[in-house]
Structure formats: structure tokens, C-alpha cells
Amino acid sequence: MSESRFKKVRTRIAPSPTGNLHLGTVRTALYNLLFARYHGGDFLFRLEDTDKERSKEEFTNEILDGFKWLNISWDDPSSEDAPEGAEMTGLSEGHIVKQSVREAIHKKYITKLLSEGKAYKCFASKEELDEMRAKQQANKEIPRYDNRSRNLSEADQAKFESEGKPFVVRLNLGADRDILWNDLIRGEMSINTKDLGGDPVIQKSSGQVLYNFAVVVDDFAMQISHIFRGEDHLSNTAKQIAIYEALGFSVPEFGHLPLIFTKDKQKLSKRKHGDIASVDTYKKQGYLPEALVNYLVGTSYNDEELGELFSIEEAADEFDIEAVSKSPAIYDIKKLNWYNREYISKLDYADILNNCAEFSKFSLKTTDKYSQDQIEAMLKGIQDSLDKFDEVDIHIDYFFEDFSVVEDKILKTLEDGKIIVEKLLILIDADGINFADPVSFKNALNSVGKILELNGKKLFMPARIAISGKTSGPDIGLIAHLLGEEKIKERLKKIQDKLTNTV
Ligand code: GLU
């Protein structure tokens, strides 16, 4: 990292509570967090709640709950050597900087720029601007504000003010020039001010200070040294650098992260893709936060030494911004499920039980049907097959309730296995299977296979379907042991009847 103008590395995540917590926001937060931790710096949180119409408390709560669930926390933003004029109001519980509380401070800086002639009031009416754009379009020009009020005479300004004519405040971008920065992810960047749509509005006619301005004032006050955010902010960055310069603030370093795309090359969004864009969905489906975090960092991060599986702490220990790719991140549910299976397979039994109990309709912790040792054997038996915890009942329902085998395909398999079912029933009636022993049923099945000259899938699949209704699951001996003699006999008989009646 080059010599910084800042005393300490400070990064931040700055979500707007105008929607659900998006996977992309978490991903951005993670890269900011990892970068700060690696450099021994701070990672801060700012709630960008200045848009009063669109900001909702329910979204604030969802965002905060989501970060908490993911175990992503932030540092105290207060600082002994805060820059002059950087009043850090807006702090509330949990070290959150609330942008809306800082409105008066934002306005103070607008007044400063106005008094220095670096910003100006633009009284152009909507009609006037519409006409301007229509003319530009007719001339095949890209519509942009033509900076017409930059040089308004003092007399005109005084006149409009005395008439109470509404105005916006615009930043004077000055003569056309390239705004340059060395992006930590994308390399040398250059955007010309003439491509920014004209002098940008920094305060609306309602008096509301605009996003780009508030961000700069707040990032300055919070002494943010590095800003990693989505590449949809590239043109904002050019405008913000112009604002930093006008205010005389040190410009932080920027890194623009690739956005998350779906496999069909569309930007992952709630509007187009619904709930899969929201963190809450994954929480509700029983994903583990560690898996989601690992998956999200991994979408654009490739560090061979770190490997594929890592915790936030491990990644932070050796985080290398150079390993962040600038090509689009691809949303891949199969990959996420792979991570989740990996993390589930590593869980202690207590966590497996807690998670399964939370997502199961069966009262796993209090059931009379099975002892807790049996529940443990059952859940350990399915642990490696779970993609996510809301699937638990698909894997264990046959331990608790009966099922009917109806699908043709299964009946076909059973038709082949009719003789297997018959032989098993004969063995059970002859007391040839000890259900207290978890391997006895399997041994009995193997001996049936020997007689019938069947093995592998041909032998096991019909028996498995007959007693569990499933084509996969834990060891068949364990299933029979847990279900017990009576239930196994009942199920085998039921299947036998069905086969006799239908085949
Ligand atoms: N509130 C902005 C957003 O949610 C933050 C952008 C930034 O990081 O500066 O996109």
C-alpha cells in the first residue's frame, strides 16, 4: 500500500435502508472489513438514511439483524484526532453513524462552498430544463445540464431570491478536466468532468442535501481512508472526488468491486430475481452464516494459499486486495450449497441438534418416540446429506410418520424387489434379525442377496424404498434399528400388499 494521507486505515459499509439486505452489500462489507482488519485498522458502519421517503425502519432492522446473524460487527467511529470541523454527531447505540442526524453539518459545508463561489444556486425551472434537454436531443446531443446558471449576475440572483424562486445548489466543476484515480481493483481510472451530466446538484430545492455530497462530508468526518464499493458507483466516485477537492479534503483511495451477476449475465437484483438477492432468505432456509460469508468472499477472491474454506479471521490475516478479481462475480447456488454442506459436516452434534430442531416440524428435543441417543444417531446419519437445514424433514420424516409409495418408478423398482421384501419378512418372522443391533438388518439383507444372487443397488434400493420411501439416506441397518421390528414389519407388509394388488 502506498504511503497514505491518513493516520490509520479506516473503511466502512454504508447501506441505505431502502430495501432488504442484499448479498452484494454483505460482500462489499466483507471486503472492507477484511482490508481494515489486515491493516490493523477500523471498519465502520454508516446508515445512509437521508432519503426520507424511501428509508424504512423495517429495512434498518433487517440490515442490522442480517449483519448480526453473519457475525459482522464494526468498530467505534469516534476518534481522538478527528479532522477539524468534523463533528461526529449521529452516533447511536451500536456505533452506528446515522447520516440523517448529520444534516445540519452537511448544510454547513454547502454554505461554505456557496460563500467561496465553488457552488452556486441554480434557479432554472423544470420547464426551462425540459426545454434545454429537448433541444439537446433534437441536436442529437447527450442531454446534460449546460451549466447555464454558473455565471448568474449578482443582480439576477438577488432578484430571484427576493421573489422566493426555488433553487437547487450545484457544484461548479470548472473547466473540463479528467478526474483521475488509481483504483485498487480496476487500476488507473479517468473520467472527464464533461461526462458527468453537467454541474451536479448537491442540494435539492427542498433543502435536502444529496447523497454524493453527504457521503463525502461523512467519509471525511469518519476519516475513511479506503472505500471499497460496487462498480455501479464509478460515476459517483468522479463526482465525489470533485467534491473532496472543492472542500479541500484529502481524497481517500477507492476500489470498485465487480457486481454479482446471475449465470444469464443479469445483475442480481431483487426486482428481477426476487428473494435470492436477500440475505434474509438464506437465514430462513437454514444456511450457516459462515458458509454464506465464505461463499461471498470467494466469489471474487482467489488466494491459493488460503484455499477455498476460510473464516473471516483467517481471510483477514492474509487478505490481499490484489487477489480480488475485477471480473463479474457469478451467483451460483450449487457452490453456496457446497460451502454449506462443508460447514454443516463440520458442526458439533449440539449445533446439529439445535439447527435441525429449529427447522423441523417434529419436536426433536422432546419426542417420546425416540431417545435422545437415537435422535443423535438419526441426525448424525443425515448430517452429510443436508444442503441446508430447512431440508431436514425431507430426510427424517419417515422416522416419524408413514408414507405411501406411489410413484411408478418406485413401484417398478419394488416389483423387481418383491422377492426381497418377501424374504425379509420370512426372516423377521423367524426371529432372524436382531433390531437392537444396528448392523443386523444389513447383514440379513446381504444374506438374502446371496440366496437371490443380487447385490449393490439391486438389492439395497428396493429394501430402502420399502422401509423409508426414499432412494437415499443413512445406513439401512441404522434405519431399521431406529424404526424397530414392528414398524419395519408393518412397512414391508404394506408394500407387499400393494405389490400383490397392483402388479
Ligand atoms: N448508500 C450507498 C449504497 O447503498 C453507499 C455507497 C457507498 O459505499 O458510498 O449503495
Care to describe what's here?
This protein has a four-stranded mixed beta sheet with strand order 1-2-4-3, covered by helices on one side. Strands 5-6-9 form a three-stranded antiparallel beta sheet. It has a two-stranded antiparallel sheet with strand order 7-8. The chain has 20 helices and 13 strands. A hairpin with a 3-residue loop joins strand 7 and strand 8. The chain is of the alpha/beta class. Among the domains are: 76 residues, Glutamyl-trna Synthetase, Domain 2 (Glutamyl-tRNA Synthetase, domain 2, Orthogonal Bundle), CATH 1.10.1160; 45 residues, no CATH class; 101 residues, Arc Repressor Mutant, subunit A, CATH 1.10.10. The mean pLDDT is 93. 34% of the residues are buried. The structure holds glutamic acid. Glutamic acid (GLU) binds next to loops.
Short recap of the structure:
With 503 residues, this protein is of the alpha/beta class. Helices cover 47% and strands 10% of the residues.
List keywords for this structure.
Arc Repressor Mutant, subunit A; 503 residues; four-stranded mixed sheet; three-stranded antiparallel sheet; 20 helices; Glutamyl-tRNA Synthetase, domain 2; alpha/beta; binds glutamic acid
Number of strands: 13
Radius of gyration: 32 Å
The hetero molecules present are: glutamic acid
Catalogue the unreliable spans.
none
Q: In one word, what is the shape?
A: elongated
Summarize the SSE layout with pairings:
Blueprint: E1 10-13, H1 23-38, E2 42-47, H2 57-69, E3 91-92, E4 96-98, H3 103-115, E5 119-122, H4 126-138, H5 154-163, E6 168-171, E7 178-183, E8 187-192, E9 201-203, H6 211-221, E10 226-230, H7 234-247, E11 253-257, E12 260-261, H8 270-273, H9 279-284, H10 289-298, H11 312-317, E13 329-330, H12 333-345, H13 349-359, H14 372-382, H15 392-400, H16 408-416, H17 418-429, H18 440-452, H19 456-468, H20 476-502
Parallel strand pairs: 1-2, 2-4, 10-11, 12-13
Antiparallel strand pairs: 3-4, 5-6, 6-9, 7-8
